[in-house]
């Protein structure tokens, strides 16, 4: 019984971060996925920014904030999740399981033939995980100007 419970918990933990495959999805599809797969997150529709279009979700326990950035057509161009540091170790484990590790606190994966970069930045009281399309790099492997 304990084994079944452990497998179930691990499965749902992995879904939490794997569902970041939002990049390229339309806003209406994201809203449906969030309603079905993340009932513990509440859409914050009372906050708006006139220069940036996004969907913002807050966990019921106030330990996570999800910001899903949209372009002018309502297509997702990136996701940022901010979590309390109490979730740091479990999120690092999930990221290492789900994505190909790169440099320190960086991962990547390919979805629909598009490379997605995942990065983590830790602060004193919280950390942030960001998903975005990989930047185009020159032959030397960096994107600095010559």
What can you see in these coordinates?
- This protein has 146 residues and is of the alpha+beta class.
- It has one domain.
- The chain is 27% helix and 35% strand.
- It is built from three helices and eight strands.
- An eight-stranded antiparallel β-sheet has the order 1-2-3-4-8-7-6-5, with helices on one face.
- The radius of gyration is 16 Å and the shape is globular.
- It starts with a helix and ends in a 13-residue tail after the last strand.
- About 8% of the residues have low confidence.
Number of structural domains: 1
Going across the biggest sheet, name each strand in turn.
Answer: 1-2-3-4-8-7-6-5
Structural class: alpha+beta
User: Biggest sheet, in brief?
Assistant: 8 strands, antiparallel
Low-confidence stretches: 4-15
Number of helices: 3
Strand content: 25-35%
- Average the pLDDT over all residues and give the rounded result: 84
Quick summary:
The protein is α+β, with helices and mostly antiparallel strands. It has helices at residues 2-18, 27-37, 88-98, and strands spanning 41-43, 53-59, 64-70, 76-84, 100-101, 106-111, 114-122, 126-133.
Main attributes of the structure:
146 residues, alpha+beta, eight-stranded antiparallel β-sheet, 3 helices, 8 strands, 35% strand, globular
Write the layout of secondary structure elements.
Elements: H1 2-18, H2 27-37, E1 41-43, E2 53-59, E3 64-70, E4 76-84, H3 88-98, E5 100-101, E6 106-111, E7 114-122, E8 126-133
Helix pairs in contact: 1-3
